[in-house]
Amino acid sequence: MGRTLQNTMINLGLQNACDEAIYQLGLDMEELEEIEEDAGLGNGGLGRLAACFLDSMATLGLAAYGYGIRYEYGIFNQKIRDGWQVEEADDWLRHGNPWEKARPEYMLPVHFYGRVEHTATGAKWVDTQVVLALPYDTPVPGYMNNTVNTMRLWSARAPNDFNLRDFNVGDYIQAVLDRNLAENISRVLYPNDNFFEGKELRLKQEYFVVAATLQDVIRRFKASKFGSTDSVRTMFDSFPDQVAIQLNDTHPAMAIPELMRIFVDIEKLPWNKAWDITKQTFAYTNHTVLPEALERWPVDLVEKLLPRHLQIIYEINQRHLDHIASLFPNDMDRLRRMSLIEEGGTKRINMAHLCIVGSHAVNGVAKIHSEIVKTQVFKDFAALEPEKFQNKTNGITPRRWLLLCNPGLAELIAEKIGEDYVRDLSQLTKLHKFVDDDLFIREVAKVKQENKVKFALYLEKEYKVKINPSSMFDVHVKRIHEYKRQLMNCLHIITMYNRIRRDPAKLFVPRTVIIGGKAAPGYHMAKMIIKLVNAVAQVVNNDPVVGGKLKAIFLENYRVSLAEKVIPATDLSEQISTAGTEASGTGNMKFMLNGALTIGTMDGANVEMAEEAGEENMFIFGMRVEDVTELDRKGYNAQEYYDRLPELKQAIDQIKSGFFSPNEPDLFKDVVNMLFHHDRFKVFADYEAYVKCQEKVSELYLNSKAWTKMVIRNIAAAGKFSSDRTIKEYARDIWHVEPSDLKIPPPNEPRDAVEDKTPNGTAA
C-alpha cells in the first residue's frame, strides 16, 4: 500500500489546505510525509495491483472490501553491505499505525487440525485448535467523491484459554508463552515473488485470511435484507447476486472448499446447490505462467491441517473427473492432466485447477498473457468451457502514480486539457494535438529535468553518490528475477563500458543506469545478480577514463515510496523480460504515464502499450513469443551466441576472469555457468538486438526535441492503463455491478435529497 497521508489528502481534495496550514505552523509537509513508514504488505506487482484496485473501486463508487493479513513484519528492508543484499525485519508498526482501527467486536474464530466425524446429520470437524482473527480497518477514500471503502486486515490472536483447557495446567507460565504459536500466523510476510514455497505456516496464513473473511462476508449477508428471509432453504439463493469474491491468484484458493464446508456442513445445503452458489460467487485471476510459481500443496499437509477441506476437495475432484470422463470416455491422459490432484511422488493439490473448476470466470492480466493461459497453460480447461476465460489488462491508479508523485506534470496536463482526466484517463488522447506545440514541448522537458535534479539531490543525500542530472536516466526497477533479465541490462552496462575504454574520444551519450529491486532471501541466483551489478558499478564508477559518461547505481530497498521518487525522474524504462514470461507488468505503465520512453520486449502489457502509442514510439526489440517457442523446439545453444558476438564474449570473459571481482576471481562462476548451460530465459539470444536497440535510444536522446515529442505521444496513449478502466471491466463482465460516478453528499449536507439514488448491487 505504501504511505497513506498524501494519498488521503489528494483524494479528499485537502492537499493545498493542509500544505498551507502546516507551512503556517513553521513545518514542511514534505518532511512530515517522509516520516511515515510504507505499509509493505505484499511482494511485488501482485500486491501493488491490489492497492491500485482498492483506490479505483472507491473512486468508482463500488461497495467493495479489500481483505488481507495484517502482517506484523512486512516485506524485509533491504540493505546493501559490501555489494550483497542483507535483509532486515520491517518493523513497520513500531511507532503505531494511525490509519488503522482495531475492531475487536468483529473478532472471529478460525479452526485448524482436528479430525472429521461422520454423523447422521452430516460431517463434523472436531477437536480443532482455535485461533482468533482480529480485524483492523483502514479507510480507502475515493477520489473527490465522498466515498470511503474499507480495507480489513486480520491479525491472529490466541484465545484466552489457549493451552489452559488442557491437562498441562501445571505449567501456567509456559501455556501463556505458547500463545505465540497461534499468533505467529500473522507475524511475517513470506518474501517470495513468483515462487511457491510449500511451508505449513504459509498454508495456515492462506486458510486464516480465507476463513475469517468468509465468516465476515456471510455475517454481513445475513444482516442484509437479502439474507434475512424466513426460509433457511432459500436464504442463500440470492448470495451470488449480492456477493462477488475475486481470488487474487491462487493464494486464497482454500476459500472454495471453505465456502462449500460452510454451505454443506453448517448451513445444511444440498451439495449441488452449494456448488452452484459457490461457482457463481468466485472468480479467479491468474498472475503468472512460471511453473515454479504455481501452488501445489502436498495432500499430507492439507490432511493434517484441514482434514475436512481435503475431503471436500476430493469430492469436487471426483465430480469434476466424472464429468470429463462422460465427455471424453477412455481418455485417461486428459483425466490425469485435468485432475485437481497430481499423482506421482508426493500427491499434491493443484490450486490453479481448483480455482478454475470452482469459479465462473478466469482471467489473465494482459492480452498476450490471457492467450497463453487459454492456449497453453490451461488449454484443456479452456477447450471445455471457452466462455469462462477472459482478459482484464492491468492498470495503475493515476492518483498515486501521477498526481501524487509528479505534481509538475499533472498540473501541466491540466493546463492543456482540464482536470477531468484524473477520473477519466482516456482524455489524455487530447494531448496529441500539442505534440508540435513548441512551448508545451519545452515545458514537458523542463518538468522532467526538475524531477531529475530533485532525484539526483535525493541520491546524493541518502546514498552519497553524485550523478549528472543531464545524463540519460536509464532505470530498471522491479523484483530481481532471472526472467526479468537484470543480467541482460548488466551485460549492456559492461558493453558500454568497454566501448568507452576502447575509444575514449568517441561521442558517447552520458547515462546513469539505475537498477533496483529485492531478491527473495532464499533465491541464490537473484542475490548473485545484485552482487554482480554492484561489482560492475564499483569498476565503472571509479574508472577515470569513463569519467562522467557512464554511472551505474544499485538502488537500495526499492519500495512504493522510492518508486514515487525514481519513476518521475526516469528517461528510459527497462521492460526486458523474455517474451511470454511477464504476465503484465505495471511498472511499465507507471513509467509511460510519467514521461519515460520504454525499451522492451513484446511481453505482457508492453504489447498493448505499443498498440496504443504505436510501435514506432517505443524501443521494441528481441524475440516474440513465437520465436522463443521456435528456439525451444530447435534447442537453445548459448555457446553459439558467445562465439559469434565479440562484445558479448568480452563481457562474459571479464565476469568469468574476475575483472569485476579481483579479490575473488571465480565469484561469479555460478552466474556464468547458468548463462551457458541452464538459462531458461535466453539472455544471450536477445543480447545483440538489445544492444542495437540501445544505440537507437542514445541516438534519439541526442535530439532533445524529437525525444520529448515521443514522450508526449506516449503520455497521450497511456489512458488505457488506468486501473479505473480495469475495474470497470471487472465490474461489468465478472461482478455484474455498475460503477457509479455519483458524488455522495458530504456528511454536513442533508441526505434525503439523494436517498434513493444509490444503486443496489453486488458487494465485491
TrEMBL record:
<protein>
    <recommendedName>
        <fullName>Alpha-1,4 glucan phosphorylase</fullName>
        <ecNumber>2.4.1.1</ecNumber>
    </recommendedName>
</protein>
<feature type="region of interest" description="Disordered">
    <location>
        <begin position="739"/>
        <end position="764"/>
    </location>
</feature>
<comment type="similarity">
    <text>Belongs to the glycogen phosphorylase family.</text>
</comment>
<dbReference type="InterPro" id="IPR000811">
    <property type="entry name" value="Glyco_trans_35"/>
</dbReference>
<dbReference type="Pfam" id="PF00343">
    <property type="entry name" value="Phosphorylase"/>
</dbReference>
<keyword id="KW-0663">Pyridoxal phosphate</keyword>
<keyword id="KW-0597">Phosphoprotein</keyword>
<feature type="compositionally biased region" description="Basic and acidic residues">
    <location>
        <begin position="749"/>
        <end position="758"/>
    </location>
</feature>
<dbReference type="InterPro" id="IPR011833">
    <property type="entry name" value="Glycg_phsphrylas"/>
</dbReference>
<keyword id="KW-0119">Carbohydrate metabolism</keyword>
<keyword id="KW-0021">Allosteric enzyme</keyword>
<feature type="modified residue" description="N6-(pyridoxal phosphate)lysine">
    <location>
        <position position="590"/>
    </location>
</feature>
<keyword id="KW-0808">Transferase</keyword>
<dbReference type="GO" id="GO:0005980">
    <property type="term" value="P:glycogen catabolic process"/>
</dbReference>
<comment type="subunit">
    <text>Homodimer; enzymatically active. Interacts with PPP1R3B; recruits the phosphatase PP1 which dephosphorylates and inactivates PYGL/glycogen phosphorylase.</text>
</comment>
<dbReference type="InterPro" id="IPR035090">
    <property type="entry name" value="Pyridoxal_P_attach_site"/>
</dbReference>
<dbReference type="GO" id="GO:0005737">
    <property type="term" value="C:cytoplasm"/>
</dbReference>
<dbReference type="GO" id="GO:0008184">
    <property type="term" value="F:glycogen phosphorylase activity"/>
</dbReference>
<keyword id="KW-0321">Glycogen metabolism</keyword>
<comment type="function">
    <text>Allosteric enzyme that catalyzes the rate-limiting step in glycogen catabolism, the phosphorolytic cleavage of glycogen to produce glucose-1-phosphate, and plays a central role in maintaining cellular and organismal glucose homeostasis.</text>
</comment>
<keyword id="KW-0328">Glycosyltransferase</keyword>
<dbReference type="GO" id="GO:0030170">
    <property type="term" value="F:pyridoxal phosphate binding"/>
</dbReference>
